[in-house]
Each structure stands twice: as C-alpha cells, then as structure tokens.
Amino acid sequence: MTLRQSSPGSLPASLRAPVVRVSSHGAALDHREVPDETAVALVHDGSTTAVMMATPSDLEDFALGFSLTEGIIADASEIENLEVVETKLGIEVRMWLARPRSEALASRRRYLAGPTGCGLCGIDSLSEARRASPKVAEGLQISAIDIAAALEALPERQTLGAATRAVHAAGWWALSGGFVCLREDVGRHNALDKLVGALRAAHEPRPEGVLFLTSRVSVEMVQKAAVLGAQVLVAVSAPTALAIRTADEAAITLVGVARRDGFEIFTRPDRISGRA
After folding, report:
1. What gap in Å lies between CA 30 and CA 19, rounded to an integer?
2. Which of 118, 148, 174, 238 is catalytic?
3. Is 121 tagged catalytic?
4. H-assigned helices in 158-261
5. What's the mean pLDDT in 147-164?
6. Tally of structural domains, the chain
7. Which tens digits make up the pLDDT trace of 133-148?
8. Distance from the CA of 63 to the CA of which of 20, 84, 193, 252 falls in 20 to 30 A?
C-alpha cells in the first residue's frame, strides 16, 4: 500500500481556544486546549463511501480501519494506494482497491454520513444493522489484576484526552508489555477504527492482549472489536443490551463499568481469573 499526504501536519489535532474562566474567585481570561474536528471523506475508487466528523490525525489508520471493520476489505494489502488530500471543505482520504475488492464494492455501495457519535447512519438495510460478527479465537486468560494495571496505565497514554478532556480513546494492552498502541478521536467509532487500522498495518504480529475503550459500548463497537479479533473488550462505561447479545454471539468477553477497584463482566467470564 502506497501512502501519500498532500499537506502533512497542516491540521493539528487540537487548538488553543480563548475562554473566560469563572470560579468562586471571579472571572479571568484564559485559554483551553480543544480538539479539532473536521469533515473527513473516505473515498474508495473515486466514490465517497463515508463522510465522518473526525479529529484530523492518524487518518491513514482511520481509513484502513474503517475499510476493514465495514467489510470493504479483508486485508490491508487490498488497498493498493492511499492519499490524504486537504481541501477547503475538509479532508479526503482517497483509496484505490485491488480486484476483486474493487468490483465487490461497486456492486454493494454503502453511504454512511453522520455527526460525531453516530454509528449506523445511512446504512441501506435492517439486515446490515444486525450483520453477523465473526467469532473470535479462544485461549486468552487474564486476571482482574491485569485489568486494574491497564486501567492504571491508560490515562498517561491519553495525551490528547489529557489536554482537551473531550476525546475518546481506544487502546490495545499487551499482556507482555502494556499498551502497545492507542488512538484518540472526538468520535468513539473513529478512535476504534484508527486503532484497528494501526494494528493491522503493523508489520509485526499483534501481541496477545485486551481492547480498552474509554466510551460506552454499543453494538457497532462490538462488531468492530470482533473484526479486530479481540477476545476481551474492556470499557469504562456500560454496554447496551444489543451489544451484550452481539458480544455473546461473537464469543467476546465483554467487561464494562471498569474502574481500578472493580468492573462488571457481561459475557464470557471464564477468560478472567481472580474475579473475587
């Protein structure tokens, strides 16, 4: 896959905004770091597949991850060329697919357009909303102590989150070495797609580990986790009922309401030891 970017680094992930800070001591002029948000068009073979509001960073990862989790491609090698182009209206990430993926997409064109936080906007059928997720592998065993350790380490890896307090994060925590990859975005789906893209683009095999999310868990987040092959998904917020059913069908261990002092296991508790 060939990567090109027309204006590298021209759009920052965050900006300093002037504010009037009000407290019990009065009011004062100050500044706050806020995340940037721009329209990002994901274009396959010359046609726009999706327009998402996203943080303009790690866009190659975003495009690859979205293409994988939405079933447009099955492997990174099926994108022959990728170009990030900045325009007056936003950013286009232009991808050219190898055959037969290009031919398959032409016959099954989907349009997803929605604001930040939207996950299923624009799909063309009810069956697509409840598409079957692949079953993940078996064999992973982790402890409650592992989860607590990862949650302890998570904040220091959220650099954009620490600066802005306004973005989501998705991270891969390796049993052998802590967080090996983490991506942030104003959209929780975007953050996960960026992580999927980064992990699948890496030349070395993904280490055995756990997917961590700083957001709530809706059905499409579980579907994307299944494409990634995550056996255990840990989120700081609670899942929806449909997300629980989907995780169970995909054999994913779903952990929610995760804090350093405890968490709740919704599906497949057999992968986690030391639950007492």
Report:
1. 5
2. 118
3. no
4. 159-164, 188-201, 219-228, 241-249
5. 96
6. 2
7. 899 999 999 999 999 9
8. 252
